[in-house]
Amino acid sequence: MTLQAEFDQYAEDVKKVKTRPTDQELLDLYGLYKQAIAGDINTGKPMLDMKGKAKWEAWNSRKVRPFASNEEFEATTAIVKRFEEGIGQHLHQKLLQRAKSRRNWLEDWWLDTAYLELRIPSQLNVNFGGPTAYLEHCWPAREGTQLERASMILWFTLQYWDLIRTDRLAIHKAGNMPFDMDQFRMLFCTCKVPGITKDTILNFFKTESEGPCPSHLVVMCRGRVFTFDGLCDGRILTPPELLRQLTYIKNYCEGEPEGDGVGALTTEERTRWAKAREYLISIDPANKTILETIQSSLFVLSLDDAKSYSTPENYSKLTQLALTGDPTIRWGDKSYNLLSFSDGTFGSNCDHAPYDAMVLVSHGYYVDQKLRASGGVWKGSQVVRDFSVPEELIFTVDERVRRDISLAKEQYQKSSQDLQVVSYAFTSFGKEAIKKRKLHPDTFVQLALQLAYYRLHGKPGSCYETATTRRFFHGRTETMRPCTVEVQHWCRTMLNPAATAEEKRRALHAAFNKHNKLMGEAQNGKGFDRHLLGLYLIAKEEGLPVHELYTDPLYAKSGGGGNFVLSTSLVGYTTVLGGVAPMVQHGYGFFYRIRDDRFVASCTAWKSSPETDAEALFQNITTSFHDIMHLTTLSNL
After folding, report:
1. What is the phi/psi pair of residue 611, to 5°?
2. CA torsion angle for 454, 131, 165, 169 (degrees, to 10)?
3. Cβ 150 vs Cβ 301: under 8 Å
4. What is the C-alpha separation between 411 and 144, in angstroms, rounded?
5. How many C-beta atoms lie closer than 10 Å to residue 414's C-beta?
6. How far apart are the C-alpha atoms of 104 and 84, rounded to whole Å?
7. Most distant CA pair in the chain: distance in Å?
8. What is the b/e burial string over 297-331, where b = at least 16 CB atoms within 10 angstroms of the residue's CB?
9. d(Cα 469, Cα 529) in Å, to the nearest integer?
10. For the chain, how far is it from start to end, CA to CA, in angstroms?
């Protein structure tokens, strides 16, 4: 609906009103009238005239859509119309033809465009990572527990691998709707390999019915790399047996100088890493064998000397270590790096290309629940069978490789030190209290985030929220855009001192309803971001020039092309938390989990950006939580 049409509708509705409109409704009508007649506001903001100030804010708030002036919106509308009536129709027909020959027309394109063709360093900019919650129950941080605890986590993880391998992992569902489980094949025995222009993903996992599957682990400690088999005579090693292996590795590393830290190369810009890898292989064929051993391994365990200093209320240091920890003892291209810190706390760092975070969440929650049930103590056999000690994998390196490693570490350190990470628990209330008010907990958080950003920055923030499309064959995600007109109207109303509680509540419920509607559409394949991507890529394949739709300033300003200021995701309703770096330099990463009595969130920002502050945003979010709860509590009195 155009502004003129919206104003005309208001004008007709006013004629039917039998009681005087509220002050906020009059201000809304005034703002629409002035915007429709005069365009964007062209006067200064009154400072002492409160009535004039309220009218100025009402007019200013009617700038067309969250990110556009009148002129910008009209120009974009014309571009969209030309696209829709012109080349867009042809491209859509081509897309339909592609869909006829594939069960998922997007799958290959998405993997290439979103991940494999990117040339930026992926460990910090693409990977996701986060803390475990074991310290909330069985295992508070404690020195001298690292290896014993790690052996327990390894055992539970190997049990989870066996569930997938023997087709015993329960199918996920939303209600009665089954979800596609293909991504779970990529959790183990998977690795990204760098290429000059495009990376590839190698997956060696097989179910029992498909044939043999690699069962060896890789352990990295103090720049050195080791491997051992997780099975003995076809049976998973027990925690005491795994402890023996880890103790051997730790003792060995403590008696030797630090290793070369070849793993640091995986933090490099992708083309540089590809060239360094080619050279590494060229100087000794044995290096290729070592790389293949790492690539095909179940996963990587990192034995880290760092301490997390984290508590159930403050996960900041642990999350920071997960995202930016020692690059010489993790393999950034592996689908799963299990991180074990010296104070008995744990985290993870995972390549995002093979799967989405919910795969690791499922695994992490399985381990957490099994650990909680065991009390964190192994109660089985203490017998250690006779099998080989771990083998060290020693790369042949020369001065050029050492320089490459040194440069990679230097670049990584510079980038990682620029990342601000805060991760706190909000414990005043959680899902239980929100659902009593018949509100969706995820929408509650997203609206609080929008209000926090608006309050902190004085403007709307383009926002990406993950919407799963796993109800479709090999589905991954669609973009849900929480920064709606309704949300922005609610934010302005909340910050308007003249607005009544009833006006704020009405605006809140309109924002909630719009968010829930859009999320439902995105999850059901009716979003538009992936469709727009498909039209762009089909044009590229046809050799057609990039349409002006994709170069329109509003396309990027609203988040298109991976330019969302707020990159967000609900990690779930479990004990598993994650974190990511911001999508853009002036943006934020915001991942969160929701429990009955709390929210726990990780918020990141780039320190080098003068615009952003993760700590300030998080504190504003907690204020917004209380604001919404107060507003909805009043409505129930």
Report:
1. -90, -25
2. -60
3. yes
4. 33
5. 9
6. 24
7. 89
8. bbbbbbbbebbbebbeeebbbbbbbbbbbbbbbbb
9. 13
10. 36
Enter the tokens of residue 150: 């790690």
8-state DSSP, 311: B
Q: Is 146 in contact with 341 (CB distance < 8 Å)? A: yes
Q: CA–CA distance from 383 to each of 239, 379, 380, 388 (Å)?
A: 10, 12, 9, 15
CB 107 within 8 A of CB 353: no
Residue 341 host element (H or E):
strand 337-341
Whole-number Å distance between alpha carbons of 549 and 534: 13
Identity of the residue numbered 292 = E
Phi-psi region at 528: left, alpha or beta (left = phi > 0; alpha = psi -120 to 50): alpha
Quick one: tokens of 448? Answer: 């609080």
Contacts of 515 (CB under 8 A, 6+ apart): 440, 443, 446, 447, 482, 484, 486, 487
Percent of the chain residues topping a pLDDT of 70? 90
Task: Let me know how long the chain is.
Answer: 637
**Mean pLDDT of the region 554-560:** 94
CA distance 46 to 55: 9
CA distance 280 to 387: 32
Tell me the helices (H) and strands (E) count for the chain, helix number first: 22, 19
Residues labelled catalytic:
352
**pLDDT tens readout for residues 170-202:** 999 999 999 999 999 999 999 999 999 999 999
Cβ atoms of residues 145 and 139 within 8 Å: yes
What sections of 255-306 are H helices per DSSP?
A: 270-283, 285-296
- Phi then psi dihedrals of residue 566, to 5 deg: -115, 115
Query: At 88, which amino acid appears?
Result: G
- What global pTM score does this model have? 0.90
Q: Which residues pair with 425 in a beta bridge?
A: 600
Q: b/e for 135-162, b at 16 or more Cβ within 10 A?
A: bbebbebeeebbbbbbbbbbbbbbebbb
Cα Rg of the chain, angstroms: 27
Which run of H or of E encompasses 29?
helix 23-38
Q: Is the pLDDT of residue 52 over 90?
A: no
Closest CA to 496 of 1, 53, 7, 135: 53
Instruction: Compute the mean pLDDT over every residue in the chain, rounded to the nearest whole number.
Output: 93
Q: What is the pLDDT of residues 301-356, one digit of tens each?
A: 999 999 999 999 999 999 999 999 999 999 999 999 999 999 999 999 999 999 99
Helices (DSSP H) in 495-602: which residue ranges? 501-523, 529-541, 548-551, 553-557
- Say if CB 423 and CB 603 are below 8 A apart: yes
Surface-to-core class of residue 271, CB atoms within 10 Å of its CB (0-12 exposed, 13-18 middle, 19+ buried): middle
Say which residue the tokens 């040339």 belong to. 119
For the segment 460-508, what is each residue's pLDDT rounded down to a tens digit?
999 999 999 999 999 999 999 999 999 999 999 999 999 999 999 999 9
Is there a contact between 191 and 331 (Cβ–Cβ < 8 Å)?
A: yes
Sole residue written with tokens 């995002």: 352
Beta strands in 204-320 (DSSP E): 216-221, 224-229, 231-232, 235-236, 300-304
What's the CA angle centered on 381, arms 379 and 385, to 5 degrees? 145
In DSSP notation, 177-188 reads EEPP-GGGGGSS
In the numeric block, the tokens 């469709």 are attached to 531
Give, as one character, the DSSP assignment of residue 479. Answer: E
**What tokens appear for 544 in the block?**
């057609």
